[in-house]
Amino acid sequence: MCSPEIVRHARDGAPRPNRRALFGLAGLAAAAAVVPAPASAAPRPGGVVDLTHTLTPRLPVWPGNPPFAMVPVAWHASGGFGQSALGFWEHTGTHLDAPAHRIPGAATTETLPPGDLVAPLVVLDISAKAAADADAVVTVADLDAWRARHGEIPDRAFVAMYSGWERRLADPSTFLNLDGGGRPHAPGFSGEAADYLVTQCGIVGAGVDTLSLDCGADTDYGAHTALLGAGRYGVEMLAALDAVPPVGATVVVGAPKHAGGTGGPCRVLALT
Q1: Which position among 53, 91, 95, 101 bears the catalytic label?
Q2: What pLDDT score was predicted for residue 217?
Q3: Is the pTM value of this prediction over 0.90?
Q4: Is 70 exceeded by the pLDDT of residue 52?
């Protein structure tokens, strides 16, 4: 903890970044090396798997959003403490969607029940069909197939889609996968499957390893509407889902807690 005097000294002795400097780091994405695809390890009992991507200016964001930015504003050589100013839109990196992201007047980040942020983790692997179809979706038939193999979805579970999409981070443009009209194409949940998970399975939330709960081709945002409209939350751009089992792990969502927030970057851990 810095005393007010140290913070004032460091601040007054440091150059002041302007708004353009803080949010104008998009050029770093082109100049820096691409993001390497993370290597996954086999889960081990009692282990912790980090399902969170590291925030950098090179991490893909939804088209039109600015990249993550970090600007030093205090230095150890001047005042004894280092500090940076962070600039990002709420839905950047591995992040949470609160119901208010889609539904006006719905629950915001600070009102999410803490008990919903720790839940049994279910992983649905659709990587095979996602490799053949960029607009693949989790369907009710996929849920039935998972249940036939692994048993019932636990009560109040968090259900995550694994599509293998993070392998594309070695070339971020293929992660966004924009068509000629600038619309992204990537897997997600179908609206029907999302509604089924809410009404028939009683889930607390759902997640994806892509930039959207909906597949990129769904302009109706059926999955967002079904999940967030029912007061559930979503987590987008999860990492390393192939390193956790289909069932048996527990997810811990370190959700942001700012008043009135529609979402925000979060640290997500799987306890195996």
Answers
A1: 101
A2: 86
A3: no
A4: yes
